[in-house]
Specification:
By secondary structure, the protein is α+β, with helices and mostly antiparallel strands. About 45% of the residues lie in helices and about 20% in strands. The strands form 2 sheets. The chain has a 3-stranded antiparallel β-sheet. A 3-stranded antiparallel β-sheet has the order 4-6-5. It is elongated and about 70 Å long.
């Protein structure tokens, strides 16, 4: 116990922390998800948690802008999907710069609907490029294309500075 907490306890003013201890199942789910998401662009599914455990996992991953957690219902069970937003955005930025420097289309690997949404949303305001989804089902992917003309020249000037 911290020294200030001991003093407050003697004066009768001490209140123990209201934060509940982290459940071992939650800690294990978080560790497995972080390991699986390291260097990966696809989401990770977590199953078999009760509502309180799901809330703890949500809180852990959404403290930063690096991850997004969504809950889906699968008949009787709930599934948490953890999306590596930061990695997907960095990947999209890298490919957008590649398109601007080379002036050629780049085709991204097949992605799920939410991952494609992240890429489209992130790149929608970028000068000099456009994004379009192609394909069907599991083969649906994004193609980043350069926009020729003045906007491409402006974008190249910004990158070379």
């Amino acid at each position: 116990m911290h020294r200030d907490d001991q003093r407050r306890e003697k004066r009768g003013q001490f209140r123990p922390s209201r934060r509940p201890p982290v459940d071992e199942k939650v800690r294990q789910a978080i560790n497995e998800a972080e390991t699986a998401l390291a260097g990966n662009l696809s989401s990770y599914a977590i199953r078999g948690l009760n509502p309180f455990q799901r809330k703890m996992v949500h809180r852990h991953f959404e403290r930063t802008q690096e991850y997004k957690v969504k809950t889906y219902r699968d008949s009787e069970d709930y599934i948490l999907r953890v999306y590596p937003m930061g990695q997907i955005r960095r990947f999209a930025e890298q490919k957008a710069q590649e398109v601007l420097m080379n002036g050629e289309n780049v085709i991204l690997p097949p992605m799920g609907a939410f991952e494609r949404f992240i890429v489209h949303d992130y790149l929608k305001d970028r000068d000099g490029i456009s994004t379009e989804s192609y394909g069907e089902g599991n083969e649906r992917h994004i193609e980043i294309a350069p926009l020729f003309g003045r906007t491409l020249k402006k974008a190249k000037r910004r990158l070379s500075r």
